[in-house]
Fold these 2 entries.
Entry 1:
Amino acid sequence: MFIIYEEINRVLTDHVSKYLFCPSKLATNNLKKENITEGVYFTGDIMYDLFLKMKPHFDENIIKKFDLEENKYILTTIHRDFNTDSKSNLEAILKELDKISKEIKVIFPIHPRTKKRIEEFDLKQYTKNILMIEPLDYLSMMGLRRITKRSVLCRKKSNSCYARYRLERINRCRLEYTKPTL
């Protein structure tokens, strides 16, 4: 059984907060389903607003540094504890990335905890074809994300991967264990 601390914290915080600022109508409706209607404000998505404001400042030098071409690579991050702290979850993710890396270049700015777990769990054999780089700042990460339209979501349950496309080409390869909901 998974304990989903983020979800528990969200529910508790929603119920004790005087003001709730929602990024979407869906979030507003979800609060309504929990009988929370007072102090709820639809403000819009500040992360998307930040993206639009910073877009002219994205640092694309890293694209040249690694000789990347538009739509010829995917970008991945793995840093959530439920993905990194379980050997079986991390191994499943890395195996899928290894398969993908045989078809397309995989860029992986690696989080220190993930790097430590790969070494600790002896999983380096799945990273040979993956371009693992140091963590990136926001502007560099967005620069990398800007010219790739590819994003992959792998669910451990089915081990099947499929491409998906998102607004404004804000994409990354996202391989994670599918968590049950409360």
Entry 2:
Amino acid sequence: MSQIKFRIAGVPYPKRKNASGKEGLRVWTKCVVENSASLPRVTGPCSLRVTFFLPPDKFPTDFPFGSDLDNLLKPFLDALQETVFSKVTNGDSCIMELNASKVKVDAIENCGVSCEIVQNELLSQAKHIIRPAKPHLAIEGNRIYIEADTWVVPTNNQSQIHNLLPELTGRLGKLTSKYPKSREDVHRFVESVERILA
């Protein structure tokens, strides 16, 4: 499992529909590209945790909670498409799990973004072979069925497959929220994992 951790100083700017803040957004995007250019490249499925540190003026009285997170994420991830995600198929679509937050800081010099990308090397080597019409939840040998995907993992070593479980568990949590009627399937999935790894 590999990890890329970095922090970039600067004032994060959100993507906006109007021309307001256009120059600030250009400067921020350039800053992210330049400061992430030397970072390792992601080559497969990953999880991303990001925190934006925003100045007080981004939290005016008529907008007390600051810029929308989705609008902050869009230009940040677009900039990383040119660097960290430039070698992976379809760019930032490889992000399987995303955790984002924003924090108000007291001074411009404390502004910026902190990011952690975790890539599971074993899952990155897995061969994505099929997309069934509805979710499958099971582990059979070195095949992992989860959500609408089937992965063939290049190992039969159960301890290595066991290392994938935290990531799989996260996806299962999302699955139960997307498919409320699948809780019984999730329970069966967990039982099958326990039997395999017993």
